[in-house]
Amino acid sequence: MAHTINIFVHSANHLEDVERFGKNDPYAQFTLNFEDKSFFQKTATKKNAGSDVEWDQEVNLDYYNPEDHNNLYVEVFDEEASVDAPIGFAAIPLRQVRDAPHHSLKARYDLFRPNGDQKGTIDLTISILKPGQEARSATAGKPEEKGFSELDAQHQHHIKNKRNLERAGDAAALLAGVAALAGAKAVYDHQKKAAHEQ
Record's InterPro entries (predicted)? Predict the structure, then answer.
């Protein structure tokens, strides 16, 4: 029987600044299966939040089966006009939540950059709910407990692919900008030549 993973997303701190101009516009997304984008649930985007962000938002994953799902996958992205840029990610082993009192754990988890280096943290209250069970209210404030998060090689590969798409999107936008400038210059030169001939 499927259970629900209830995630209260408190905040994230010391995130990598991936924004070229301005500040990060971060959102967090969660899944038990990162290979299928339809399973992701995400927070709101916090515009111009930078490297420290507070969401204080609840997210539910209604398809948790303890026999099938060992990890909760966390991804933090910077919202972009074209392709969103990965900021950090982690795999959180759910055994620590199953072993916690009331199957609920409020903790701070390390995030990793696409290259595998640790950078930033995310504060979550993760609860496993049986069908019909209500989530306990998440208490405010910073978690006192350090949760365990890890680098999953397949998840890292998924994030690197997202980063490469974002970089390709940036390159395409840059090339389009250069082409537009070249076109504008050609029009300007043509108008200047026509004015000079008159």
Answer: C2_dom (IPR000008), C2_domain_sf (IPR035892)
